[in-house]
């Protein structure tokens, strides 16, 4: 009963904040905007057992509208700080002026560690001596402040090329100003103003593709992008996505395993600290694996299901997480003891 009241109070609180946000004249950074979105994030961060999918239709509609407002506000926030950073002679030396920079450091560290674990498994036996690293990475939906690409390039993948895709030319212009003064990143980071749905054969050139949380703010649109990537990415390439869990699903779309046809889901991780997004890592299936998967008896399995340990398509692996307040969703991994 206590849980029910907590969930009811949470939904009421979120709807109350949504009503205030929807009345704002602009979502550009200001005292009112910052206060309301901070209040929203604080309400949604604590671990919650709430199942977004079971909420009434009117609440689902409110959630969809709220996710779009969050995306719009995030775009304005990134543009604001990208412009501010560009005013410095060396923008990359001042990234900590962005208020959520520490979150990006934590999330990028987590994503790099997860990627390293799974990227080595499908490549060379010499991985124990010198783990292979991706030569070319694509980031879809990089925006005006591509912090994930920048942090990965600066601290983790120091020899890798990063190709950032965004449909907004002005976002790419702002982003390129941040890296152009840097002698290293300016040679390894590229910006493409394109709709990813129009990018085809080039996708085969990437070892890893990152899909931003706000590409496809409606899950139907996100699934279309995922299907496009499944069609054109190279077999064996890695796709990393960001999702949401519990009350955090009021802020970002949720990607279910069933949304990832054509990919083998390797692991899903749910943060429990101030890092909001869950991390999903998948591998593009080979043609033969894809054919097998079509005949797979239980491939349409939701997040709440227990997955058979003998099933290669449902092998959600546990991960020794380097970040203290992170945990993998235990209900998706069988105990092999």
TrEMBL record:
It catalyses: 3 S-adenosyl-L-methionine = nicotianamine + 3 S-methyl-5'-thioadenosine + 3 H(+). Its EC number is 2.5.1.43. GO terms for biological process: nicotianamine biosynthetic process. The keyword Zinc does not apply. It holds the Pfam family NAS. Keywords: S-adenosyl-L-methionine, Transferase. InterPro entries: Nicotian_synth, SAM-dependent_MTases_sf. It is an enzyme of class 2 (transferase). Signal peptide: none annotated. GO terms for molecular function: nicotianamine synthase activity. Synthesizes nicotianamine, a polyamine which serves as a sensor for the physiological iron status within the plant, and/or might be involved in the transport of iron. PANTHER family: NICOTIANAMINE SYNTHASE 3. Belongs to the nicotianamine synthase (NAS)-like family. This is Nicotianamine synthase. It comes from Mikania micrantha.
């Amino acid at each position: 009963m206590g849980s029910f009241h907590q969930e009811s109070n949470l939904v009421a609180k979120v709807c109350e904040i949504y009503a205030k946000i929807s009345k704002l004249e602009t979502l550009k950074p200001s005292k009112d905007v910052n206060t309301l979105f901070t209040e929203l994030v604080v309400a949604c961060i604590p671990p919650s057992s709430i199942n977004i999918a079971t909420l009434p239709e009117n609440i689902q509609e409110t959630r969809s509208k709220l996710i779009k407002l969050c995306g719009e506000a995030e775009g304005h926030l990134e543009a604001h700080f990208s412009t501010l950073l560009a005013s410095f002679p060396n923008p990359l030396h001042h990234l900590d002026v962005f208020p959520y920079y520490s979150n990006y450091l934590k999330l990028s560290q987590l994503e790099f560690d997860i990627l390293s674990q799974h990227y080595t498994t499908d490549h060379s036996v010499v991985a124990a001596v010198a783990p292979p690293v991706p030569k070319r990475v694509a980031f879809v939906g990089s925006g005006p402040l591509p912090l994930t690409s920048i942090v990965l390039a600066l601290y983790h993948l120091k020899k890798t090329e990063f190709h950032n895709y965004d449909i907004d030319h002005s976002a790419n212009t702002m982003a390129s100003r941040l890296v152009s003064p840097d002698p290293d990143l300016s040679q390894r980071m590229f910006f493409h103003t394109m709709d990813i749905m129009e990018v085809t054969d080039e996708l085969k050139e990437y070892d890893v593709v990152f899909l931003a949380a706000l590409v496809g703010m409606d899950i139907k649109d996100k699934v279309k992008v995922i299907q496009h990537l499944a069609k054109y990415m190279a077999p064996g390439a890695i796709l990393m996505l960001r999702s949401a869990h519990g009350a955090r699903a009021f802020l970002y779309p949720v990607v279910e395993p069933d949304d990832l046809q054509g990919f083998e889901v390797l692991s899903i991780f749910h943060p429990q600290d101030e890092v909001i997004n869950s991390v999903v890592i998948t591998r593009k299936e080979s043609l033969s694996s894809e054919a097998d998967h079509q005949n797979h008896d239980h491939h349409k399995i939701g997040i709440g299901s227990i997955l058979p340990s003998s099933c290669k398509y449902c092998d959600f692996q546990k991960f020794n997480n380097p970040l203290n307040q992170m945990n993998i969703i235990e209900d998706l991994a069988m105990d092999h003891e």
